[in-house]
Task: structure prediction
Amino acid sequence: MVVTVIFIALIAILAGWWLSRQGLTAKPWLEVGVSGDARGAEPSVRPTGIGLGAFLVVAGSLFSLLVSAYSMRKGMADWQSLPMPTVLWFSTGLLIMSSVSLQTAVIAARRGEHDAIRFGLFAAGAASFGFLAGQLLAWRELAASGRFTAADPSIAFFYLLTALHGLHVLGGLVALCRTTIKAVVLSAACTPRALGALARSVKLCAVYWHFLLLVWLVLFSFLMRWTDDLVAFCRGLLT
Amino acid sequence: MRTAVALALIVLGSVVFHLLSPWWWTPIASNWAYIDDTILITFWITGVVFAAVVLFMAYCVFRFRHREGSRAAYQPESTRLEWWLSIGTGIGVAAMLAPGLVVWHQFVTVPDDAVTVEVVGQQWQWSYRLPGADGRLGASHVAYVSPDNPLGIDPKDPHGQDDVIVQGEPLHLELGKPVKILLRSLDVVHDFYVPEFRAKMDMIPGTVTYYWFTPTRVGTFEVLCAELCGTGHSHMRGSVVVELESEHRTWLLQQKSFAQLRAPVRADAGN
Amino acid sequence: MTDDTSNVIQSLSVAEVADVELYHPKSWITKYVFSQDAKIIAIQYSITALSIGLVALVMSWLMRLQLGFPGLLSFIDADSYYQFMTMHGMIMVIYLLTALFLGGFGNYLIPLMLGARDMVFPYVNMLSYWVYLLAVLVLVASFFVPGGPTGAGWTLYPPQAILATTPGKQWGIIVMLVSLMLFIVGFTMGGLNYVVTVLQGRTRGMTLLRMPLTVWGIFTATVLALLAFPALFVGSVMMLLDRVIGTSFFMPAIVSMGEQLPYGGGSPILFQHLFWFFGHPEVYIVALPAFGIISDLISTHARKNIFGYRMMVWALVAIGALSFLVWAHHMYVSGMHPAFGYFFATTTLIIAIPTAIKVYNWVLTLWRGDIHLTVPMLYALAFIVTFVNGGLTGLFLGNVVVDVPLSDTMFVVAHFHMVMGIAPIFAIFGGIYHWYPKVTGRLLSDTLGKLHFWVTFLGAYAIFFPLHYVGLMGVPRRYYEMGEMAFVPPSTATLNAFITVVALIVGAAQLVFVFNLVRSLRRGRPAGGNPWGATTLEWQTPQTPPGHGNWGKTLPVAYRWAYDYSVPGAAQDFLPQNQPPVPRTA
Result:
């Protein structure tokens, strides 16, 4: 559970930092009236941004727990690590590409370059579908390798981790498709307001994709056993 | 008024119930009197706090109940009072925690001269295994379990051949001899629990857990399962007999070893 | 005494109508069934939760009948007993308490108390309820599947939970896990709403320290739930895979009933860690909203500001943070590494300190108050009694070595029923008696309310206080029948029969409550907008019950904190949060 506790500690630090700026040591009974700063100005982040942030925390908690479970299960005697399908490298590259293209779309949206927005969105979508296809190929490769049994824990974990991550990608693709449609429909001569709304959607997609990439890189490093030393070190700390 | 009286009566009733209750822990039969002491300390501290808080409430409800024209005082906070209360609570908590941790340290530190006894749980019965003359238990794994090897002892391990196996009968322990109970389960989570010994621990399939104690009273004690283990959970009973060393030796001699239990099977196979 | 006008900030402008894109219902269906109005969703949540709670109540009667009068009802065999036990626990903890506090109270009170028109994502909020309803229906379906619901205990410990020797092995456990996963998905949708609304939906002037403690409690609990429920989700998914396709996440090599099962190498302890990583914060998910509600009830009905408001907020946050560091105190006897015992005992007992501060501040609020013994206030007092009782017995169980003899006995049952069964339910009752007038515009009958209160309070105490002593003797929990136990005196049977009779009476008293709820809808005394003279914004709505969009044309502005009761010099003994300060006379 070390990974999870670290994750929770990070969230706690973040929350503590935020709370420390909210004036929680003031004496509210002495202050009557409304000062200008209290929710007067336009908030810098919109509710959807905060909502996405909160969702990412939930999803982050989910994946940190999965990784915790994975490393605990891995400590059992019967664990046999299996060689990872090489196609995973390919899909990792695709996910990086989609994350990068979304970032270019964000930059393009800030500048109001419609074609670049569309290009970025399409590229990201295509790369993401490619990523999912790559994961499916990896599944098939494992199944075809003849080592596939449900009872093997490392195989079961591989399928579980990739499936849950893939589901999050699929969910993101729904939002990405909606944003892409919005971008396609939007004419070049749109109002700044409409462009702003599109830019925000693109931004949210990009944030989500960066998160997906980060999660995948963490999962990938665990699956590739790069983190074994780290895990062994942590276990050493505990016992 | 009525409410204040009711609150006070709750405190009074609880105290009276506590004093008169015929339901109290069973007389102890192990060395864990310290655990009982820690419980008593906790009882006193928490009991006083409970009575104080509820009686204070009762007094407030009586004294400051609404009357025509009365008005509440205005006092947002008193940092001083809150700090003092926190510190007081901290001391109370420490007074409970410190002895608890000390006793826990004893609980997890098995003495070197403890004899080993293995308890094996399966739905819904207890079996026991004691080391033979070599003083060691043989290796075991669920995979070895078969009708003639119900506890899954490794048939190739020489240490296992002389292990004494007790099935369907009470476990006998020697008075005054520290015993380390190794806990193993073949199927689900069980918990080997003898109320008089105070100690207990889950047995988790796939691993071996343990605890230790020294029996301090001769007698027969009931074994219960304390972790839900399926339909027959409440019927998973057994018993432990604590006896003097001489009696225990006699009992041990009457028991069959793993090799002896398997011998007739091998003889059948030979024919 | 402070001069309240000294710090008045002289910039009083009319609140701008920061008009959110409010959704406008067009038909009866979208207004009352597929409604996106948080108030309707709250009522839907509450009715569903209370209904399924009644089912769980009936199951507790059946269990009590078996324990008090063994063999009286022939249809209760061991299998059905464990099924009732499992469903009772699961429903009460998750489908009733969690859903009612967060989905019910949270949805109703957050927007109103913060001066918002609605939740920030109304559509997602609506989905949240319907997914929750689906989860409840799936749960109910488990009574009708072959083999009945699972009897694995609400903790669902593997391997037992998915083996053939546990009732409900065929379908019950699968349905249970699916229902839990649905619940978590539904809750997450709602939870994101509550959090973002608190962060972003507050009206002008509503700083964090002006929020009523109810909102603080629900907010903190929601954050905990969002972080903790994924653990249950992960555990459920993995157990489902173990059960359905034969993976070995939690399943070691096992011989069950003489047969080698095709599992191997899994770790039952892994599930326990996941479960309690969710399960312990879950206790606070239920307790923190109750803390908040009780604070507001006491303050309002004692006509006095809550004592030490800042400390109350800090304590809430501290408890919330610490609750993630104590989970393994449920696993002291699970054979985990002994070193964990020291750590978790220490963290667990430390959490007692902020909790104690809350209790002190509640009773200190009563001191020199002007206590109106209304039904909500009575419930608040009863909450303190039961919560203190259950909290103190928690100090037994949290102290690792004391837990060793007491764990898995009736003492634990008595403890958690007192602290997270009875106490939060009292907070719910208090909350319902308190806010019912706002929801319906009518007061609940006081006579029936007091009858309900005294029977429930004294009865519940009489049920669970003696039960501690049964556990102290060593009677294990989750026993279908005690049978003969040499160390148990025969008088215990009488005590058990007594407890059962009281439980039936208390159960019957809940029917009085339901009757009161229904009857007062039409026959209750009209309440007016603010029957209790409360300061918080939900009592200052232009209409009662609040209309669509809550606030008419202009949003309220919060000029002061939520607890201006009996302020010296003020004409009334309360100043609503949206009452502007009197400009200083030169």
